[in-house]
Amino acid sequence: MTLSILTDDEIRALLENLTASELDVFLRQLQAALHEYSTGTQLSAIHQPERTSVYSATTGATTLFMPSVSPAGHGIKVITLTSPSTKTEVDAAAAADAPPVIRPTGAITLFSPQGAPIGILHASTLTAFRTALASVCLVNKRDNVRTLTVFGCGEQAYWHVRLSLLLRGSTIRHVNLINRRFSDNCRAILPRFYTIPHGVKQREGWHECQFGVLTPGYGEYGRLLEDHLAAADVIFCCTPSTEPLFDPAILTSSDARRKGRLIVAIGSYTPQMHEVPVELIWQATRPHEKHHHHHFHKHVTEGGVVVVDTLDGALKEAGELIEAGLEPTQLVELGELAMLRTMRLAEDKAASSPALEPAAASGSIPSLSTDVSHLDLSGNSNNNINPSFSSANLSIPSDIASTTTTDDTTTTTTTTTGSNDRPASLSSGSSRPKLGPRLLSAISTHAPKHSHHRSASQTSVATTSSSTADNASSISKKKQHQKDADRDHMARWLQAGNVIYKSVGLGIMDLTVGLAVIAHAKEKGVGSHVEGF
């Protein structure tokens, strides 16, 4: 077995030079892993224990231990960073005596499924990259991505912008960076974008993009902050803040709600930390009246849920969601959304194919490169990437093609991911992946309802058998009609509505992306590779 060792500089060089097609390989692998984690398609193979942490009073830093197991192998990340409390509780007089700030640093150790060590990777750049890679799963679904507003100027901020430019650079025209002070990171981040070769910028389509940095020291900070938030199509919050980063009124006003935005919050990771105002969380999850009030037509689509990377982690560690008092039914995992296009194609194939039984017998998987007219969530409408799901190495159960779509009420069960009481992110009432019941339930309350009225002649049927058949057919059509309406509403929400994504970090991300980095490094001849370790 070969042990691969990659330094932070080597990893950064590899990732900085990814092409769009190479990034797409990383993206697909992460989407598949998150999908398996959230839907429980491989219950015995996916295991995600809770992370543990240790605080050092000597260094003022917290060390996190994040294990994970997947069919591809298992691994653990150990990463150390300065605790937020040491940066906020030290007054100016004692600042000189405070321990030095430790930026996130550590290593990821990866093993084969049989336990053989296969990789040791520096964790700094890789952690920022994998977090951003998960976030752009949603960015890639948006209809309009012209203006990015970013809180923070560190590695997380850089990689969120960099991957957005790589995937959606042809439409992005403005990147507004906002930082609490003009720090070293603040000084360094713009040159990192400016020094990217012009040919790369042209190839990715953002050679005319304008960048700017805003700090409170600027005289018109308050006005420009509001302007940047109002203009944003995507807002990235990448700071370990212990208080909301902006006034909620800026985005909760009637005028602000006419524009759909994707808000990504990845910087806060403890119950005491907050980036997004709780009022925005309440607005995103508030049930709407069946009869729309007179302003409703001016507001963009709401989903009724907050997207999270992990249900368990978000409920225990996301300060905003804890303060908002959200229940599991108001959250949906990113993995439930990441593969929606694949799942919809399989359902359509199963529903329309007359040769359903032979397909089941052969265990074949339907072609996944077929176009979906009104639920194409692959994110390729506004960029040059046109991946084919049929060629991706995704872990999709073969029984997808042979299971008939039904609308019966499913029973919520638990999925083992490190604790026996994990709330199921997706109902496992059948053997194939389904859309999450929480998501469909929430979407259904926001989607328009359709009613069909029978005439008197239709209700008096001559024979009982034909009446039963007609009623069954009518009920089936009604259910399918409403199901399509719910999916249409969900598509509008993800593509153009107000979406909030909260990430606290997940070990399966490190494992999946780490293995992909090792494979890419071997292909490029980068790193140290010890044979027979």
Automatic annotation (TrEMBL):
SUPFAM superfamilies: NAD(P)-binding Rossmann-fold domains
Pfam families, sorted: OCD_Mu_crystall
Residue ranges, annotated region (Disordered): 388-487
Coiled-coil boundaries: none
GO cellular component: cytoplasm
Bias type Low complexity, positions: 403-417, 456-475
Top-level lineage group: Eukaryota
Cross-referenced InterPro entries: NAD(P)-bd_dom_sf, ODC_Mu_crystall, ODC_N
Family stated for the protein in its record: Belongs to the ornithine cyclodeaminase/mu-crystallin family.
Name by which UniProt lists this protein: Ornithine cyclodeaminase
